Amino acid sequence: MFFAKIKKMKFKNAAVFFNENKPNVRTLAQDACSFLRARGLCARTVTELDGLDPSFDLLICMGGDGAMLRCARAAAPLGTAVFGVNCGTLGFLASCEISDFKERLEQLLGGRYAAHERFMLRAQIVTPNSDVQEYLAFNDCVLRALQPRAFTVNASFNGKEIPPYFGDGVIISTPTGSTAYSLAAGGPIVHPQVDVLLITPICPHSLHQRPLILPAGGELELTPSFKNKDDEAILSIDGQNNLPLPDGARVRLTRSPLKVKLLATGQRDFFSVLNRKLNWGAR
Questions:
Q1: pLDDT tens, per residue, the chain with 283 residues
Q2: What are the extents of the domains in the chain?
Q3: CATH 3.10.450.50 fits 13-113+265-278, yes or no
Q4: pTM of the prediction?
Q5: 120-257 and 13-113+265-278 share a CATH fold
Q6: Domain 120-257 = CATH 2.10.70.10
Q7: Catalytic residue among 57, 65, 140, 168
Q8: 206 phi, psi to nearest 5 deg
Q9: Parallel, antiparallel, or unpaired: how do β-strands 169-173 and 196-202 relate?
Q10: How far is CA 144 from CA 104, 159, 200, 245, in A?
């Protein structure tokens, strides 16, 4: 199970990440560091995640969902646990809000937390000469055109052809990402404990193409095709890294062997978050 509970641990070294372009969050991050140090932890603030020190066993993300996505991609290869404090607008992935973050951190350090693992996507760009570039995504990978125009996406799953998509592109999301861009494009909400990949077409030029749910253990391959040879495709990773595809390249998507460890305290189950953050079920 990609959302399995993991053994609780006693944290010793913590990094507190924040966006240095947001001065109000800097003060909160420094406050969180002082709070952790007063309780015996070695803690410091970080504003860059490239080359994150592997000695950190806890990464506290003070930001919105975008910051959480960056933290997840940085922490997963190191096995570092992530605890999110929502300093943004929606904060769907966060563990708590600014108003109660010290109380939640106290619970976390006291071992009163739930620890879960969520799987990530491995995206590989394969060029015609078989060079491979590999990337990690937490929410989704989006294949779209550089110019705003419809194009064809040829697809196969485990070597078997899928009818091609024609439209503005496709979104390939994890269950975690099902409540993000995929949801906005008409995709279903997928519970994090369901082990699947989700394909959601973007503005398909057809009345018959709908989102498709596939087993997460398979291999999905996508190849863009344009009528105009000068058109280009882009692979967007979590909406943050936009990678132009070389002519003739294809995209291979599989479940990554890496997982991100998310920590939560209090009553923060999936359905209550859907209700509070997205008004799901509200009347």
A1: 333 445 567 899 999 999 988 888 999 999 999 999 999 999 999 999 999 999 999 999 999 999 999 999 999 999 999 999 999 888 889 999 999 999 999 999 999 999 989 999 999 999 999 899 999 999 999 999 998 899 999 999 999 999 999 999 999 999 999 999 999 999 999 999 899 999 999 999 988 899 999 999 999 999 999 998 889 999 999 999 999 999 999 999 999 999 999 999 977 778 888 888 888 888 7
A2: 13-113+265-278, 120-257
A3: no
A4: 0.92
A5: no
A6: no
A7: 65
A8: -165, 150
A9: antiparallel
A10: 40, 22, 12, 10
Active site residue 131: no
* Crossing angle of helices 23-37 and 101-109, rounded to 10°: 30
Residue whose token pair is 């959480």: 68
CA distance 155 to 57: 39
